[in-house]
Specification:
heterodimer, A: 255 residues, alpha/beta, 3-stranded parallel sheet, elongated, B: mainly alpha, MetI-like fold, globular
Amino acid sequence: MSGKIFFRGRDLTQLSNQMYRRIRGEEIALIFQDPMTRLNPLMRIQDHFLEEIHAHESVSSTEARTRAREALVSMGIHETRIRNYPHEFSGGMRQRIMIALALVLKPSLLIADEPTTSLDVIVEAQILEILQDLKEAYHMSLLLITHNLGIVAEVCDRVAVLYAGKLVELGSVRDIFHKPLHPYTQGLLASVIHLETKELHSIEGSPPDLIAPPSGCRFHPRCSYAQPICTERIPPLVEFEPGHFAACHFGDKFL
Amino acid sequence: MPKTGSLAAYAVTRLFLSLPMLLILLTIVFVVLRVIPGDPIAALFAGRAPPDVVAATRHQLGLDLPYWQQYINYVAAVLTGNLGTSIGESYHGKSVLFVILDKLPATVELAIGAMIVASIIGIATGVVSGTNRDKPSDVALRLYGTIIFVIPVFWLGQILQLIFAVGLGWFPAQLRFSGLPSPNQITGLYTVDSLLQGRLDLFLVAVQHLVLPSLTLGLVLSGFFTKTVRANLLRTVNADYVEAARARGIPEGRIISRYAFKNALIPVVTVLGLQFAILFAGAVLTERTFSWDGMGMLLLKSIDSADYPMVQGVIVIYALIIVALSVVIDVINGLIDPRVRY
């Protein structure tokens, strides 16, 4: 593995295991795709909270209990249910518990890895609303990983588009949706289904083999604008307009 | 009735559910003893008694009745705690139940000793193996698990006797007690009785005698534990909830103990319950190897002397113990895992 992870000016990859452990949960929290399997089936909900609070802060157990209860109630789950076990909750409730666990230490960054993929549409809407409210209530950044462009349009401020493990475009949500510079982003947006969609649009071909990725621009085998240069040179990430970056040799063509 | 979903309610339900299991077991014992070839009464007299004596014995034991009547008498007798009287040489005319109850503590002591050995060695090797996947220690312990599991228990017993009793002289090779007068009978477990009487010297003698038989039986069982613990730990150390706990910054030691190990233990406890049947079968051979005067020895002696009420009684008691243990195991599982309490 290579690369660096910067968080508040520090490179996280340089940290000791102990420092890393402290940052997890306390400064950076994570919620997952599949809330059904993310809680320890043998532990009461309350113990998940207490264990996390005591792992990071030296507080009295009375205070820890109070904070655990508040975190749960803030997610719309009744406080008496804190003594229940994970299997006594539905998927949407478990995801709200996961969010409450992520927030109980008031982190400055919440990473949400496809948080609604395994939930039904109504619960999805609930969870998204919660996440949006949190950004303001907790003064917290949200890093949302998703392939659902509808959610992106609704929740995000800045968008980074990844293809085959590489950053291909970065910009404000307005830039990305109104003026996509990378052919992959354009293909993604064209594939979104609208009410009036008669025929599905798709990007030709299939995702590349990541063990032996294509030379040059990784998207070139599927790109209708591809030129010889695309197979030879890796396009750098260029700022085509203020705050709007793309990694395409011909990005200026789409401005 | 206790609250639904509570451990007490679960235990009570489980206890009631074991009644049909018990009846099935009793039925199997009844059928098996009657379909195996050979007439026990003919075997008892070995053709040396006149026919009217044979017939009288048969009548006295109720074996001349039709099978359905025998079955009812047998179930009724067992349920009222009456296992009949012995017709063998050693215990002739004595109550089968009393003879068995006299021998039971020796077997229980051996079984507990073996389970302690098997749990400690099996869980320790399983954890080392499971947390060092494919490293030399894991490969060696997997090999240990397989080899120790297929070794015949009487062979291992004799090897241990040869090394530690005959060769090194550390432990006695035979019997439950020797040298001093055995402790007064309270529970029948010599280790417990000697401690209850405050006699540390007697306790040491009892433990010395217990070491080799427990080790023999425990080692053979430990291989299964090694493999089960390893397999389940490999499954749980990569579980989603373990990853999520790491993301919350929970210390690694706590993750292994509270998340990985505790979850891995659930199937291990279930398997442990199933192992008791193998344990008692192994105990018969171990008792024989070490002249350990328990139920296994009694069973072998009763088979030799064609003491059919005694054989039936011993098997019924084994069955009862296994039913009782399966209830205990289920309750322990309920204690660990809240999901099974419903």
